[in-house]
Amino acid sequence: MAVEATEKPALLCGDAVELDAEGRAHLIGGLCVDCGHRTFPRAPVCCGCMSENIVPAPMPRTGTLYAFSTVHVAAKKWHKPMCVGYVDLPNGARVFTHLRGDLTIGDDVDVEIAIVGEDENGAIETFVFKRSAP
Amino acid sequence: MTGVSVIGVGMIPFGKYPDTNIADLGWPAVKAAIKDANIDPKRIDAVYSGTARGGAMVGQRIMGRIGLAGLPIVNVENACSSSSGALAQGVIAIASGAYDVVLVIGVEKLTKFGGGTLPLDEDDWEVRLGLSMPALYAMRAQRYMHDYGVTAEQIAGISVKNRSNGTRNPDAQMKKEVTIAEVLGSRMIADPFTLLQCCPTGDGAAAIILASDHVARQFRSDPIAVRASHLTSGKFMSGFRDMTSPEITVRGAKETFEEAGLGPEDIDVAEVHDAFSIAELLYYEAFGFCPRGEGAALLESGATKIGGRIPINPSGGLLAKGHPVGATGAAQVVEIVRQLRGEAGPRQVEGARIGLSHATGGGISGFDHGACSIHIFQR
To answer: What are B24-58's pLDDT values in tens digits?
Structure first.
């Protein structure tokens, strides 16, 4: 699962997302080798057992929308209104994320990459979730 | 351990003071508290000063202004719990026997940021991705509406109540009644919150003088006892957490009531952290003033209005009195002390004997909130 060579802007979320050969986005979280705790984003130390033996681990691409809000007042750099929320992944991790499309709490949502704003360096691109195809 | 009492309180009216230095926001509150306590300022043994965004050495800057430096001064940063956290440290210091008299300060100048939402630390993962305090509370509101079938209009009722209380408080930043239609019709900030459901940006300062029980009556005949003083942090949770039941306040409330040997039914008046309209509803439930899911019904019953069974935020709360972040916890205590002394004028809760203050905040990834400090006072 290599990062696709691209001329797109640097991702706001750094190495927390990778694109596969088909161009599909995958969130890369952390797996604690010692206790099995999974987190997103990956941290250098485990919040469950303090182990530093953490390896990158792809996260499920589909989760459940826990809560969200359409935000009209935010820093200049964000495209507004911006929809943000928390998505619960089936492996136990919760992800704060930008969202796309008409949504309802409890929807299944899939991860992809999108431009969510613009700053002095150009477009801001990061992972977003949108409703899964039925 | 000696008991601890409040012998003096003071604050400046919350509002916008863009041309005033933070030291000059702070000292008038300190001077007012010293006068209120009827104490020779040389009797102050130590100072705990809380500010979230005021910068370094704010306590020294304030005390230097009025010629009272040269004693232990500790500066406390704990987001919205900065001055309530400072108060908790002051209580511990007196209870331990280290000091007899402690000054607690809370001060903040938010107008220096020029408006907009409270700036958060971009070093934080979720903040970098766009999380803000309105967005965080708005998600709580959305999930609460989803889980309990409550409407945006019901939540907006908190703003109507607290703005009404603010009209009775000369220290409040917002002093105008608003209707449900005006609240819902104001500018959309973060769905479901309109502008009037968000605490205003402003500046302010408040001060408290604490004394050990064995010296308190040298200064005032009516010291207000600290029945419980609690400070905790949120738990870090990388996965699921129920955003409709803030664990930091639920746990903090339980531990505070245990410390006081009291329960929610014993509280006559409370100042809780209504940074956004939904927050007050969630805290009704977190403190056990009503069962889960019944916050809106409690509000609509009138129980939390002045004159009701359990008046909440008679000062106007953060929504009307204002929320200069680091000053809030101390200002809540100013209100509770005035209520328990019977000095609250047109917003007096009749017969109030036991009061509670609650300041919680800090928007960081993985935490419900960073900090929460709860106090219970008794006359």
So the answer is: 999 999 999 999 999 999 999 999 999 999 999 99
ipTM for the whole complex = 0.94
Fold of B4-114+202-223: Peroxisomal Thiolase; Chain A, domain 1 (3.40.47)
With CA atoms as reference, the chain B residue closest to A87 would be B240
Residue B327, CA atoms < 13 Å, CB-side half-sphere: 36
B245 CB neighbours in chain A (<8 A) are: none
d(CA B166, CA B84): 21
Nearest CA of chain B to the CA of A19: how many Å?
19
Tokens encoding A60: 């499920």
Residue bearing tokens 């040298």: B218
Candidate list B273, B323, B358, B369, residue with the active-site label: B323
Distance from CA of B239 to the nearest CA of A (A): 4
**How far A74 CA lies from chain B's nearest CA (Å)?**
7
Averaged pLDDT in 10-residue chunks for chain B of 379 residues:
93 98 98 98 98 97 97 97 98 98 98 89 92 97 98 98 98 98 98 98 98 97 98 93 96 98 98 98 98 98 98 98 98 98 98 98 90 98
Q: Which CATH class is domain B126-198+228-378?
A: alpha beta
Mark whether B146 is an active-site residue: no
pTM score of the predicted model: 0.96
Check residue B131 and report its DSSP letter: -
Structural domain spans, chain A:
14-131
Q: Would the CB atoms of A67 and B243 count as touching at under 8 Å?
A: yes
Peptide bond into B192 cis (omega under 30): yes
